[in-house]
Amino acid sequence: MQTGTTTVKNNTITALINILHNILNVIKPLHINKLFII
Predict the structure, then answer these.
(1) What is the spatial distance between Cα 9 and Cα 14, in angstroms, rounded to a whole number?
(2) CA-CA distance, 29 to 35, in Å (whole number)?
(3) Biggest alpha carbon distance in the chain?
(4) Could you name the domain of life of the organism this protein comes from (predicted)?
(5) Residue 1 three-state SS
(6) pTM (2 decimals)?
């Protein structure tokens, strides 16, 4: 049971990290465009 819970926790952490990376990839170009517009 402990190994199963740890793997689930690791999977959720990796999923959250992937989501954060996707959000950053979307936000970074917007910030770059704003800087160039300014």
Answers:
(1) 9
(2) 10
(3) 55
(4) Bacteria
(5) coil
(6) 0.58
Tally of domains within the chain:
1
**26, two tokens:** 């979307």
In the predicted model, is pLDDT for residue 16 greater than 80? Answer: yes
Q: Which domain holds residue 11?
A: 1-38
With 0-12 / 13-18 / 19 or more C-beta atoms within 10 angstroms meaning exposed / middle / buried, residue 10 is exposed
The residue written with tokens 């910030």 in the block is 31
Name the residue with tokens 């300014």.
38
